[in-house]
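Ticket #4471: structure export looks truncated?
Reporter: QA, pipeline team
Priority: medium

Steps to reproduce: submit the single chain below to the structure queue and open the exported record.
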Amino acid sequence: MRITGSASSHSQPNTKPRSGLVHEDEFALEATSRDALREAIRINGIEIARLKETLSEVQAALSERVARDEYLKRVSALWKDQEKSESHRIPDNFAARQRQRRTSMAWRVRREAYLILKRANRPLNRTELLRELRVAGVELNAHDPLAAITKIMWNATEFESTGGGYWLAGEPIPAD
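Actual output as written to the record:
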């Protein structure tokens, strides 16, 4: 009989440690208990491997879903951008006149005002229109640019005065 390390107080319920030493046979397992322990370790190892494989599959599926989500969001954004740009396209018959002068200031103001109002999505007064026309690169060669905008917008059948600014004739004013 060999004697090893120190005993703990919970090693065997009715056994008192003798002078801090424990006999190895106190911890001896029966042969069937050892076999059961080996089998439990083997089964646990198999389960760990199965869970790791499942985890890998779940991580791969998650990565695919995240990539698909990003793709769908990009497509959605492109679709929204396309719809937005289509809604801001000037109709072919817009500002058509019996005698069209595409170089005239009034023609350029009408066409650009259409785009500005579509982008703003609300009526704009003449001061706001003038500011946006200048941002768009349309300069009014007039002594009084605000008076020129008023005359152009008032005479254009494509626009209507709403009291708070100009809006596109025949189109409902968007709610805020």
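Status: closed, not a bug. The export was complete when the record was re-opened. Leaving a note from the reviewer for reference: The longest strand covers residues 3-6.
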